UniProtKB/TrEMBL annotation:
UniProt-recorded name of the protein: Competence protein ComEA
Gene3D superfamilies per record: Photosystem II 12 kDa extrinsic protein
Biased composition (Low complexity): 119-128
Keywords on record: Signal
């Protein structure tokens, strides 16, 4: 009887011991699947993080009149989408004509820093 219990215990505990040594499977980082704004269905558009039913419907109706030329055209013709949101949608996988969004350089980005303001000098009383 004792031999049977040992065999059962080993058959149950051995896989647990192996799992405990390996630990949980590591998380695999995956890049978002590209979704083309000019060709994707409403369901495909809604798979992009940040696009819900309202925005996907708007994208489909706007592109029906004329496909988006580029990201600036996309931003100009899509209500509620500016440079910041376009960057988020692009990083989530949305493309326009196969390209990701590259934010334009902001004015003054390459300008040298302004000179530091002079620190006011405090007059010290002469001691002695």
């Amino acid at each position: 009887m004792r031999t049977g219990l040992v065999a059962i215990a080993l058959s149950v505990l051995t896989p647990l011991a192996v799992w405990a040594q390996k630990g949980p499977a590591p998380a695999v980082a995956t890049a978002p699947v590209p979704v083309e704004a000019n060709k994707a269905s409403q369901a495909e558009l809604e798979m992009v993080k940040g696009i819900g039913p309202q925005l996907s419907g708007q994208l489909i109706s706007v592109r029906a009149t004329q496909p988006y030329k580029d990201w600036s055209d996309f931003i100009q013709r899509t209500s509620g989408v500016g440079a910041k949101r376009a960057a988020k949608l692009s990083s989530a996988g949305l493309t326009v004509n196969g390209t990701s969004y590259n934010a334009p350089a902001t004015a003054g980005a390459g300008a040298p820093p302004s000179p530091a303001r002079p620190v006011p000098q405090v007059a010290r009383a002469a001691s002695q």
